[in-house]
Amino acid sequence: MFKDDQRWRKEYNKFQQKKSAFDEETINSNWLRADSINEVKAKAIINKYGYPGYNRVGDTSNDFWAIVQHCDDDIAFQERILVLLKKEVDKNNADRSNYALLTDRVLVNKHQKQIYGTQIKLDPKTKKAAPFPLKFPKSVDKLRKQMGLGPLAVYVKSFNTV
Q: Which of 19, 33, 64, 134 would disulfide-bridge 14, Cβ 3.0–4.6 Å?
């Protein structure tokens, strides 16, 4: 599932650099199809087993999280995962930074201010990266540190060097 999740995202990056063997339409349609199939599979996994934490699947738990992170067309599902993921994080059975990333993703998808500054947008004029609006801008780095994330300025800078 994770390979399928990443394949067309990587191909899109190649396309942006004019290095892909595929056109944009082919990439986008395959990307959407892979996400759709993975979403169905992720829901089946959750319904049958609950959230797959480290004790059940090892580091593959992070791959599962990435798939859920890309289920933007079903925010209710992502919110359901947040509840399950939080329980696993509290037991040190899942990555807290993944919880932070999904929390922000859901908030941004709901047009609300994010907490950890993990969701980034590019200014179309300047082509510079910046976080979507923050709920607690003065304490964002403290909140990020609690979730195992580095300083926001360093994170944003990493997008500006790509």
A: 19
